[in-house]
Design goal:
The protein is mostly helical. It has one domain. It has a two-stranded antiparallel ribbon with strand order 1-2.
């Protein structure tokens, strides 16, 4: 038993270190998308006393504020400081995937965790684009991992509700899964009120803190509701030639919500597991709704947790190919040229710059074909595969083969979040923020001299564009494409196949 625990600890350290090193290196060496620009300007705004409103709860504002403090006080690149929180939780997600898979398939656990650690899709969205979805996904996986990790106890249910609330507070992409709160048919009878109590306790505590710092919870809920109806939509099936005229497809919640209700019925009847229900919801959403690139991260950890490595390989191949072209084509973005700094490295590594030919408008039809037709078709096919395979056998019951998942493990996984919250609070109470803003402004103005970017526009919004040049054999697009091919091979190959079988 001791040897087994030591081996598991070694696996976790390898997975976490690999994930963290890759993500920090990419986040530090490359500037990032318009999301990094918006995050930097929001951080500056917070120190200047201006209200910063995002279509989520103000949890993200705490990370933006802390990113500014880190950059002003430590020799950390400003873009990296703003990406550190999602990088940390994305690295923890890789370890969590390993532990969740180990409950039912120990032979696949290390490979599944390592695959997420080196995932090109996760790298692109978290370290290059600079998005926050990894925090919400981490706590979502942890919440259901706790709930389905053993016998149904009230403290387990309370922990589930509290972790689910933290996921919503980071980014409310798990909001439709409130339909999965009631226990499904045939589970050990445990009242739902502990889960609701955990949810309420965590949300009410966070809302009280938000109100104390001048944020209106009511206004946040209004922004979230309005954003969830449509959000930012840049590609997907509604933009395909034969569906572009159907405006109803752009208002996703009107017709995606019924899909979640159907999946919830399957779950409560015991014909789908919770993770399969969530996987299917994300896949059906990606297949049918207007999308933004960060949404492509959502189903990947769920596919790995359910040990669907070959579908994950297909998904990663298509998603990575699309993202590489999408980020490089200014005409595919919400506003032209807004994402052309994603692959801009620090000036000392300017040879990593992609070739300018990938930014030509002539490639837009290829990007549109991949994003509006090929990717939705691929995602829908994987969704149908998951639905078919998920319903062939009864959903796994908690409390049988999964009793080795104690609630205290969730406490260990939550420790980094609690520590980070304590550090942010301590910084808020001890640092004279009046000294931070001048230093941050100086750092922000120096960005074009540090990275291979130039200022394209300051009004109506700041746009930084990469100084793209000639084709180099080891540019970042080539390196990421090679990583994607290796990843898909590692995911698709059957490691247990015998030579003569």
């Amino acid at each position: 038993m001791a040897a087994e625990r030591a081996w598991a600890t070694k696996d976790r350290l390898i997975i976490f270190t690999t994930a963290l090193v890759l993500r920090i290196a990419a986040g530090a060496l490359f500037f990032g998308s318009v999301d990094v620009i918006n995050a930097a300007e929001a951080s500056l705004g917070l120190f200047a006393g201006r209200p910063v409103h995002v279509p989520y709860f103000p949890t993200i504002n705490a990370f933006l504020w802390f990113g500014g403090v880190l950059s002003a006080k430590l020799p950390l690149p400003f873009p990296l400081s703003l990406k550190l929180a999602p990088i940390l939780f994305d690295s923890l997600t890789a370890v969590l995937i390993r532990d969740l898979v180990a409950r039912t398939a120990r032979d696949l656990a290390f490979r599944a965790g390592l695959l997420y650690a080196i995932s090109p899709v996760a790298l692109l969205i978290i370290s290059f684009q600079g998005q926050w979805d990894s925090i919400a996904l981490f706590f979502l996986l942890l919440a259901f991992g706790v709930r389905e990790g053993g016998s149904s106890l009230r403290r387990r249910e309370f922990c589930f509700g509290a972790l689910f609330a933290v996921s919503l507070l980071a980014k409310p992409i798990a909001l439709p899964f409130l339909a999965l709160f009631p226990r499904r048919k045939g589970d050990v009878l445990t009242p739902e009120w502990p889960a609701v109590a955990g949810l309420f306790a965590a949300l009410s505590s966070a809302f009280a803190i938000s109100e104390a710092y001048g944020y209106s919870v009511g206004e946040s809920l209004i922004r979230i509701s309005a954003y969830s109806m449509k959000g930012v939509q840049m590609f997907g099936l509604p933009f395909s030639p034969w569906l572009a005229g159907f405006a109803a497809l752009s208002h996703r919640m009107f017709w995606i919500a019924p899909i979640m209700l159907v999946l919830a019925v399957f779950y409560h009847r015991g014909t789908l597991s919770a993770v399969d229900s969530m996987t299917l919801f994300y896949l059906f959403s990606l297949a049918t709704a207007g999308l933004s690139p960060q949404y492509l991260l959502w189903p990947l950890p769920l596919l790995l947790v359910t040990r669907r490595l070959r579908p994950a390989a297909i998904y990663t191949g298509v998603a990575t190919g699309f993202l590489l072209l999408f980020y490089m084509n200014p005409w595919a973005s919400y506003f032209a040229f807004e994402n052309l700094a994603i692959f801009a490295p620090i000036r000392q590594l300017a040879w990593l710059l992609p070739p300018a030919v990938l930014a030509k408008r002539e490639l837009l039809p290829v990007v549109q074909a991949l994003g509006n037709i090929v990717f939705p078709a691929c995602t829908l096919s994987i969704a149908l595969f998951v639905l078919n395979k998920g319903r062939l056998q009864p959903a796994e019951r908690p409390g049988r083969a999964q009793d080795d998942w104690p609630v205290r493990r969730a406490v260990w996984y939550s420790a980094p979040a609690l520590l980070l919250a304590a550090i942010i609070l301590l910084a808020k109470l001890t640092i004279d923020t009046r000294l931070v803003l001048p230093r941050l402004l100086e750092i922000w103005k120096a960005i074009p001299s540090q990275y291979a970017v130039h200022v394209e526009s300051l009004k109506p919004a700041t746009l930084l564009v990469g100084d793209f040049g000639k084709f180099g054999p080891l540019n970042i697009i080539v390196l990421l494409a090679v990583l994607a091919m290796l990843w898909c091979t590692l995911a698709a190959v059957d490691m247990n196949r015998r030579p003569n079988s």
